[in-house]
Amino acid sequence: MQYEDALKAWGARRIERANTRYEVVISPETVSVDMDFSEGVQCCPPGQRDSLCYCSQAESPRAQVQIWGQDENGGTWCTSIPAADFDFRAVLGEIVAEADGMIHNFG
Questions:
Q1: What is the pTM of this model?
Q2: How far apart are CA 16 and CA 37, in angstroms?
Q3: Which of these, 35, 49, 69, 91, could form a disulfide with 63 (CB 3.0-4.6 Å)?
Q4: pLDDT by residue, tens only, the chain of 107 residues
């Protein structure tokens, strides 16, 4: 499965799980996922010289994630993952699981 298809399938499941009260079914083809990433790099602002300032990869990558999709009636649904709750390894694992562990980007 292409990564983009796995991402859309993951997004559809995320929306459905966030809205179980309504028994919504989201079509993966309609899903849009927006991830605003922070790679976890901490650096001094340009031109600043400070002994307390450094660059490192000490923090884990974070992202604010917004997911939108439509149900079979054309209704728009959404959910999000706040940056504080984002776990890169877990999210990537969920996306790969949607593709039964087989993601490829060719063809």
A1: 0.76
A2: 24
A3: 35
A4: 999 999 999 999 999 999 999 999 999 999 999 988 776 555 666 666 555 665 655 556 678 899 999 999 999 999 999 988 888 889 989 999 999 988 887 44
